[in-house]
Sequence to fold (405 residues):
Amino acid sequence: MDRPLAPYWPHTDVAGIESLVELALDLRSTWEHSADELWGQLDDDLWALTHNPWLVLQTVARTRLEEALHDAAFRTRLETLVAERRAGLTTPAWFQRALYPPNQPQFLPITPVREDDGEWLRLEVVTRGRRVWLRAWKAIVGRTMLYLLDSNDPANSPADRGITSELYGGGLQLRLIQEIALGIGGWHLLRRIGLRPEVCHLNEGHAAFAVLERARDFMESTGQPFDVALAVTRGGNVFTTHTPVAAGFDRFPPDLVARALDGYARKGLGISIEQLLGLGRERPQDTSEAFNMALLAIRGSTAVNGVSRLHGHVSREIFQSLFPRWPRQEVPIGYVTNGVHAPTWDSADADDLWTRACGKRRWVDGQGTPLGSPTCASDSPGSAPRPARRRQRRRRRRRSFAPMR
Fold:
């Protein structure tokens, strides 16, 4: 393994520590319980209190760590789990997860994102005439890399160091700066680490400023003006709205947005601040109308969807004013019914029960495609589970006692 995390590794010279670090830094431990016994063997009390393998690994005594790694059964189980993890990384699957860490990242299974020379990757976002520095962290969630932005950089003012300290906290000014950091800083981070995503999924309007930064990035690389850049890049943006009422969208006073983004509009995008504000208004020329993040996301995306059939219908009503000559049922907003990553919500006991009954990979079919319900060996065609058979018998009884006409 690479060792850019050496300052965070306890007992780096202990043979076998790399395998424990690999497991501890993978957040699949929140739903995958195979390694629970190992962490319990290292520190049963702390594991029972925290269920945080990275914290256990950092605080376990060196003597206990060496004793466990010299135990043949422990070492064999560890090597098996690491091999299973690595094999699983190549299996097709999907996963999405949000992480809301406490204030001490060193006790979380996350690591700094480093430049090639080993320096901590830092991003610069300019707002209200000042620079805000954002640091990047990486969390490993199974096969997925989750990148986190953190404004707690010593180069920032005390107020700016708290920008990312609380989700949805503070007033409108803090919320606007958070969303600038997320959208503009987030897209900037992807480019800095060498990622060029073909599709950018905006999950709610909080990250809608990524629409502008993606267009600015295209302008920089092609020399095209903003209107062309927006028209081209919107083809790779998708917006999912979760809000069932118009009042639930983030709205900001025009003067607040102007103070925060006037320089970005003029110097970065080559447009006036009024043109930028118009992208987030129902009536772009109405200078008194608030700036709506959902409208910016819609105007910058090629596809828009709600999260259920009913919500798709409600969203078409909410946004119909953007498509005044379209019949409501043809407003181009679809829906994708939300799913649940069932293993995340399994307790260790439930996981053990389902594993014994249906196997470890019960939530996926043979091709690695997630299923809506577990597949058990006893589920054969024509043999419905007991509740279904009871429902069938009840239906037959109801038909038997139906009144004659």
About this structure: The longest strand covers residues 130-141. The chain has three domains: 6-88, 105-335, 342-400. The radius of gyration is 26 Å.
